[in-house]
Amino acid sequence: MAEIVKKSAVSDNYQTAVIASREAYRKSIVQKRYDKFFKKEEAEAADVITDKMSGGKTLAILAVAQRYPGIRLFFGRVAKFILKKGLRNLDKMALDKELEKTVMKFNKSEATVYTNTLGKLGFPRLALARGRVMGFLQETVDAATKLVKKPRVTHKISKGVKEALDKHIDFLAEESFFQKAHTIAKQNNVISRSPRAREWYHDYAAEYGVNYRSGQMLRGGGKRISDIKLGRMYFFRYQSQSSASGRDIIKTKDEIYDAFPLIFCLAEHPNLIEAFNFHYIEPALRARLLGKMFMYLNNEDFNNKTKLFATKFKKVIQDNRLFRHAKVSYRTYKPGRIRSKILEVHPLDWELAIMLPTERFITPDGARVSSKKIWFQSKKLAKVI
């Protein structure tokens, strides 16, 4: 009997050992699969990063950044990008659409942490506009020629656009903000108005136009003209009838207004101009709106003859919610209240002009009002119209 019990115990121990061995093998297989699909990505990504900055400082920076959900997601996509395309230079990540979409979802804290941590490791810089991430700052003065040996052109470039750009660069004041932007764009073959090219101009304006003001725009932001025509973009200084400055001004309570409108003229009457003013909406919405408007242009050469079909577009913004932000920005202006020369903004400059902080909102008493407050009100109104 004792011998049977002993054999049974041995058998049980053997079965237990077999089960334990199988479980250990199963775990090892699972671990190998994990290592293959995840750890490898993390390790290779870490190797590339460490090449840029060695030592414990790199790991400390990465550990801080990993605490933020948006940056963790970014790391995962960076790893996939490296495995798929390889990476010799961190700057090349700026060309990847998926990575760019990821950083555009960063909140303010994540954008700050990215800039202060990963930016110091050599990751592409972020293009910021009033606290929001617009994407990667890809082709700046210093980095553009290093990033791309043969810039990617996804849209066919028409001969007309090339000719218009050459003429426009010659026309612009030497070393002006607009001339510098177009010269750098031309050097990097950013000539068409494809979505990618438009993003380039938005990034440039966000980076280098942050201190550009209305006075500079009046001096060099366009061609001085004597009369306003339909479907074109204009910039000028305006004084509302309710403004407290000036002896001939009637002091009545009226709405807050923009003293430096950036408008598209949609209708013209003897003593009244109907237009929508880009300044009433935030820069990101301006960029989207302008892109949608391209389908209502008379040509895509972006030369002096390019204009918006004003009458048609006026009807569209009244009936189509896709253009509700243009509707909430719709204003009327009296030519007699214009207090400066009228500047016509060249079609090639539209992308830059809409992103520049040239607005100035003031009350009837002449007090300044925050642009963000106006943008918030416009966005709120756009939801209900």
Please give a structural write-up:
There is one protein chain. With 385 residues, the protein is α+β, with helices and mostly antiparallel strands. It has a domain at 214-382. The protein is 49% helix and 11% strand. The protein is built from 16 helices and 11 strands. It has a 6-stranded antiparallel β-sheet. It has a 3-stranded antiparallel β-sheet with strand order 5-10-11. Strands 1-2 form a two-stranded antiparallel sheet. A hairpin with a 2-residue loop joins strand 1 and strand 2. The longest helix is centred in the N-terminal third of the chain and has 51 residues, at 2-52. The model is unreliable at 33-55, 139-156 and 243-253 (pLDDT under 50).
What Rg, in angstroms, do the CA atoms define?
A: 29 Å
User: What oligomeric state is this?
Assistant: single chain
The shape is: elongated
Strand coverage percent: 5-15%
Strand order of the largest sheet: 3-9-4-6-7-8
DSSP helix fraction: 40-55%
